[in-house]
Design a protein that fits this description.
disordered N terminus, disordered C terminus, two-stranded antiparallel sheet
């Protein structure tokens, strides 16, 4: 059997032309004679690459995973799977079914009012669907009442639900809408669609509402709230150093603020407003609040016990303030010592110092005396405790009183000062008759024998006003020279032979008492 060989066309295009299934669509008509634009001989897998060489925007979408061909499932596969050609000039090889098309597979998901908008509103007939604008002004430029003065980012304020329902949050600005501002029409503050550089000070909108006529400045918010002019946000106690209490809380602002608040500083001392009410004529200084309260001038809030270092007790409670406070306390501080007020009543003539309270109470000078004599250098013991004060203190100059016994008891001194003035050496204050003196312990001449019963004046004959006068001689002949029958022939040491029991009792020299030295 022989083989029939047909003469093949000289070019691949001629061969494919012979087997071309039909005419191309109108958009590809100009390349219909060049099959190599879309086909490679015996290489169908190369066709998609050839498509992308012409449709570069589709290739960009696929590479960037954007647009329909980059996002839709399977859209990045072989082009011929969705787009057949050679169907004639009038064929629609796109095959778009608007009813089934999923817009979420594009770069623009339909939300809100956009879901019900006809496709042709954004995709005019004859235009490529991919050429539809993605920004708001692309479709709604003619609807922009702001005339692009706020830029092109319409979504910053408006949502896709409706132009009439803006989603702009005024709180994201430096002026959040609160109180009555929340319900105010935008045009009230943004006249003629002016949005940028809108003033935020109260006076720019409310100058005509300012009943203070500018005296308190333009920062109305320092006193007023946004709910209403009558709803004051200013708290005088919290926001100033002068809390309003008592009758101050009801006083009209202009009573204290008659002038421009920012040009004239309002004084806070009492006399600036109440000088005519000062019955003290400024003698007590400007700090009226130390004594008076804000409820009334007559009702005093000053507590002398609490607010000073001199609590009022007894007679001081009923004393008039002017008795102690005679001048301006700033220039003449009120002293608190007793003599500053009672010097004329000091019977001691200042001799006992200024601490009158050491002895006297505040009820009366003559009562409630609490002087303790035991704390002096002369404690009252025995009968002294019952003696009337004036017996020793002839005057109120108490320190003039003498402490020596003879100062009061010279007439009672049976010794006539022969034993000195230190009566306490023998006597005690319980009684003159109750006394004790041990001659052996207190002197160098112990009394023995006949000396024990001898009257004191037998040896102490002279006055002993000075203690040294009591230092009597202790030799026998000093008292018994007239009784010496030996007339001095045996010397002066009588005790060598005689004892102190009696002169007539002579003893041997070795038995005699040792001489006193």
């Amino acid at each position: 059997m022989g083989i029939l060989l047909l003469a093949a066309p000289s070019g691949s295009g001629e061969l494919e032309t012979l087997v071309m299934p039909g005419p191309l669509i109108q958009g590809h008509a100009e390349i219909e004679s060049d099959c190599g634009s879309c086909h490679r001989p015996f290489a169908p897998d190369a066709e998609s690459g050839l498509c992308i060489e012409c449709h570069e925007d589709i290739g960009t979408d696929i590479g960037g995973q954007s647009g329909f061909h980059g996002r839709a499932p399977g859209a990045s596969g072989d082009c011929r799977n969705c787009h057949a050609d050679h169907l004639g000039r009038a064929a629609d090889i796109v095959g778009l079914d608007a009813a089934l098309f999923v817009h979420d597979w594009t770069d623009y998901s339909l939300k809100g009012a956009h879901t019900s908008v006809p496709c042709v509103s954004c995709h005019p007939v004859g235009d490529k669907h991919r050429d539809a604008p993605l920004d708001c002004v692309g479709c709604h430029g003619s609807d922009d009442p702001h005339r692009e003065r706020l830029g092109t980012q319409c979504a910053d304020c408006h949502s896709e639900l409706s132009w009439r329902r803006p989603s702009f949050d005024h709180a994201t600005t430096s002026f959040p809408l609160e109180g009555a501002h929340f319900d105010a029409a935008c045009s009230t503050c943004h006249a003629n669609e002016r949005w940028q550089d809108t003033p935020t000070d109260c006076g720019s909108c409310h100058a005509v509402d300012d009943v203070h006529l500018g005296r308190f400045g333009s920062d109305c918010s320092s006193c007023h709230g946004t709910v209403g002019w009558e709803n004051l946000a200013f708290d005088h106690t919290r926001d100033t150093r002068f809390p309003l209490t008592g009758r101050h809380a009801k006083a009209a602002c202009r009573s204290c603020h008659p002038q421009d608040l920012f040009e004239t500083k309002t004084p806070t001392d009492c006399l600036s407003c109440h000088r005519n009410d000062d019955v003290h004529r400024n003698e007590n200084g400007p700090r009226c609040g130390q004594c008076h309260g804000t409820a009334s001038w007559v009702k005093l809030s000053f507590d002398h016990d609490r607010d000073t270092e001199f609590p009022l007790r007894a007679a001081h409670v009923a004393t008039a303030c002017t008795s102690c406070h005679t001048g301006d306390p700033r220039e003449n501080p009120t002293p608190s010592d007793c003599l500053s007020c009672h010097r004329d009543e000091d019977a001691h003539e200042g001799q006992l110092g200024q601490k009158c309270q050491s002895c006297h109470g505040e009820a009366s000078w003559q009562q409630d005396l609490r002087f303790d004599h035991e704390l002096t250098s002369f404690p009252l013991l025995g009968l002294h405790a019952t003696v009337a004060c004036e017996s020793c203190h002839e005057t109120s100059r108490f320190q003039d009183a003498k402490t020596a016994c003879v100062a009061c008891h010279r007439a009672d001194d049976a010794h006539e000062v022969r034993l000195g003035t230190s009566c306490g050496s023998c006597h005690n204050p319980n009684s003159w008759q109750t006394w004790r003196f041990d001659h052996g312990e207190r002197t160098t001449f112990a009394l023995h024998g006949s000396h024990e019963g001898v009257d004191c004046t037998s040896c102490h004959r002279a006055s002993a006003a000075h203690p040294s006068a009591l230092a009597l001689p202790s030799g026998c002949v000093d008292c018994h020279a007239s009784e010496d029958v030996h007339r001095g022939d045996f010397g002066t040491r009588c005790e060598s032979c005689h004892s102190d029991a009696a002169w007539s009792r002579v003893v041997a020299p070795r038995q005699a008492r040792e001489p006193r030295r």
